[in-house]
Structures are given as C-alpha cells and as structure tokens.
Design a protein that fits this description.
Elements (H helix, E strand, L loop, with lengths): L12 H9 L5 H4 L2 H22 L12 H23 L1 H6 L1 H15 L4 E4 L2 E6 L5 E2 L2 H21 L8 H19 L4 H18 L3 H20 L5 H11 L10 H11 L12 H4 L11 H8 L1 H25 L3 H26 L16 H19 L6
Antiparallel strand pairs: 1-2, 2-3
Helix pairs in contact: 3-4, 3-14, 3-15, 4-17, 6-7, 6-8, 7-8, 7-9, 7-16, 7-17, 8-9, 9-16, 12-14, 14-15, 15-16, 15-17, 16-17
Length: 398
C-alpha cells in the first residue's frame, strides 16, 4: 500500500517504528552489550561497596546510612542519561563541537583556581555548590583532550590527504593537551596529570604518529619529573605520599597509614572474604577515604580474592570491548577516540588498584565506575557513550 499512512507494507507507522527498533540493523542491536553490561555491573557493585564503606560513618553521612548509596545511584542514573545523550548525538557530531567543549573544560579548571574553588584532601580541584553538590572539572578535561587531539590528528588522514599525522599536526595536538595539563598542575593534582599523560600516549600510538614522538615524550616525562622534584613544585603532602610508597614503614601512623591499612584490609579477605558488610577494617573505619580512593579495599576484605578478581575481570571486559571498537572503526577519528579512552581507563584502574596493594603511589585517582563521585561517574559514562557511538555508526557487515 502506498501513501504516507503506511511506511512498511501491511503496518502502520507506529508498528513500523517498533519494527525499526528490533530490526537487524537497529541501534539497540548494534550496541556493544558486553561492555555496557560489564560497566553497569561494576557501577551497581560499586554502590554496594560504597554503602558498606559509609553506612557507619556518621561524621560524613549526615546520620543517614543510605546517604552515599542514594547519591551514588543518582550519579549512576545521571551517567546513564549522559551516555544515552552522547550516543544520540554521536561522536561525529561532537567532533564539530570540540572547540566549544574544549573551551568549557578549560573554563571549568580555571574557575577552580579562583575563590570558587575548594581544597579537599590537599588538592584544590573542586567547585562546591549549594546543597553539598560539588564538581571536579578536571574529569571532563580528559574527554576534551581525547576529542580535541583526535580531531586534529585525524583531520587530514580521514580526508585522504595524508596517510598518517605529520610532525606539525602532532605539535598542534600536543599544544592543545599541554594547556589544561599546566592548569591542573597548578591545583596541584598530580594524579589527574598522570592520567592525561597516559591518554596522550595512547592517542599518539593509535594515530600512527612517528614513534620518535613517543620516545621523545617518555624522555621529556622523566626529565620533567626530575625537574618537578628538584624545583619543589609538589606540595609537602604529595612528597610524603611518594616517600611512603618508597618506604611503606615510614611513619606508619602518618603518611603511611592509608596504604598500611589498605593492605591489611585486602590481606584479611582471603579467598572469599568476610562477607558483605562484615569486614572488620571497613566496619571499624580504619581505612580513610574508603568510598572513593580506597573502595577496592572493601571488595578485597568483604568479597575476598573472588570478588576483587571479579572487578578486575569486568574492567578487563570493558577494555577488551573498547579495544575491539578501536580496531574495527572505519575512520581514524573513531580509532583515536576509542584508544584514548582505553588508555584513560586502563591507567586509572591500574593506578587505583595498585595503590591499594602498595605497588603504586597514592594519587587520589578513583576506580572507574566503582568509586563514589559524581564527576568521575558522569565522565566515564560519557566515555562509554562515545565508544558505543563509534560502534553503532560503524557500517554493518554483510
């Protein structure tokens, strides 16, 4: 039947719409469901760990044992909405909005350095609003760096003008990333800077840029670390954290307290753990910042090696699927964006878990999807939305 009243033979427009949703090439069928489910399980598991870590801490939960649980689930809901919005807009549309997004992210981190900024745990990287709501703009800078560098590095390659980014293009991309890094260093937030450096290396590797840039950046990084140490740019609390990492027995009641208590908590969990909500270290509130930086210790103590291993496995699924999306993208822009997200998630997960085990220094980076924190939750789910957009906009195979 012809005419506007029927778009599919024998079906009305509403029925045709449902047919489209469940068709073979529909968006829902083209989503990367293993990644999506793994990330969702991580976030839901994180809500239980956050609840366990905060339910007895009346000094921070305002007398409501469900305070952090409810807020964590609210953050998750907002994060899922942001993911859906990102998929709906598409990574290609966001490519055109990169200058605006980059400018807004720079404005955010600059505002942190004004009287609007707040210092939490020795680092001035927050903007605190009314009602207990706070924002960490540096989390969104990671996304703008990935999108901005990908846009620059892939522009001429995707247009067919160049087989890979030339030196001038790489310099432009590095210049874009350097500005926010310098601002974040002023806060100072060394952990976020290290995550940004990991993102830059991942982006350059995926873009096909000359390996000389990779080796040059690694060399410059070593020189920069020595210079930062010699020029005393780091705050005293940051220097103490590195000292405690180098010597765990240094001041066990002071700078080494966090890492010592974290290892005690994880070590006491054994194979299957003490049981959810039954960890003595967690219940006794011996591990500081347990709902954020040290949330992995709750899993280690209460769920044991099995539960902690499950978190690592789920993070591995997310990274594996993201790597496949990067590999299968039909454009360099999509490949570079996906690779930047992989580098971000991989470094941050390794650093967070590593610092609880004592094999990495304490830097204050959250565990993706698991740690409590709205800014982090929003940013990682936007990143998942970008990955899903790259996946669904890729031409379907026959």
């Amino acid at each position: 039947m012809t005419g506007n009243s029927f778009s599919v033979s024998g079906y009305g427009p509403e029925r045709a719409g449902w047919t489209r949703i469940f068709a073979r090439d529909s968006l829902t069928r083209r989503l990367d469901w293993p990644m999506l489910l793994a990330a969702l399980v991580l976030s839901l598991l994180g809500s239980l760990l956050v609840y366990s870590a905060t339910r007895n801490r009346t000094e921070i939960n305002q007398g409501d044992q469900y305070y952090f649980l409810v807020r964590h689930l609210m953050n998750l809901g907002i994060g899922l909405a942001l993911m859906i919005g990102t998929i709906w807009l598409g990574h290609r549309a966001l490519r055109n909005a990169v200058p605006v997004l980059y400018g807004l992210s720079l404005l955010g981190v600059l505002l942190v350095l004004t009287p609007l900024g707040a210092t939490i745990n020795g680092s001035r990287n927050w903007i605190v609003f009314g009602g207990g709501f706070s924002l960490q703009p540096a989390e969104f800078v990671k996304i703008s760096i990935i999108l901005g560098m990908a846009m620059i590095l892939a522009a001429r390659v995707d247009a067919g003008d160049k087989p890979y980014p030339d030196h001038r293009t790489v310099v432009q991309a590095l210049g874009l990333a350097t500005v926010p890094i310098l601002i974040v260093l002023l806060m100072p937030d060394l952990g976020t800077v290290l995550a940004m450096v990991a993102i830059i290396l991942g982006v350059l590797l995926a873009s096909g840029a000359s390996n000389r840039w990779i080796f040059g950046l690694l060399t410059a990084g070593v020189i920069g670390c020595v210079a930062i140490w010699q020029l005393h740019i780091l705050d005293e609390y940051q220097i103490n954290r590195f000292a405690a990492f180098a010597n765990p027995d240094l001041d066990p009641a002071g700078v080494g307290y966090n890492t010592n208590q974290a290892r005690i908590a994880i070590g006491s969990g054994g194979l299957t753990g003490a049981g959810l909500f039954h960890g003595s270290q967690t219940t006794g509130q011996f591990v500081p910042e347990q709902q954020t930086d040290f949330v992995f210790t709750v899993a280690g103590e209460e769920l044991g090696f099995v539960g902690a291993g499950l978190i690592v496995l789920l993070l591995g699924v997310v990274l594996w699927r993201a790597c496949r999306i990067a590999r299968d993208s039909t454009e360099l822009y999509g490949t570079v964006v996906a690779a930047g997200i992989v580098a971000w998630f991989a470094f941050q997960a390794f650093e967070n878990i590593g610092m609880t085990l004592g094999i990495m220094p304490v830097t204050g980076l959250p565990l993706p999807f698991v740690s409590y924190g709205g800014s982090s939750m929003f940013a990682v789910w936007v990143a998942v939305g970008l990955l899903q957009s790259i996946k669904v906009q890729r031409p379907m195979s026959a």
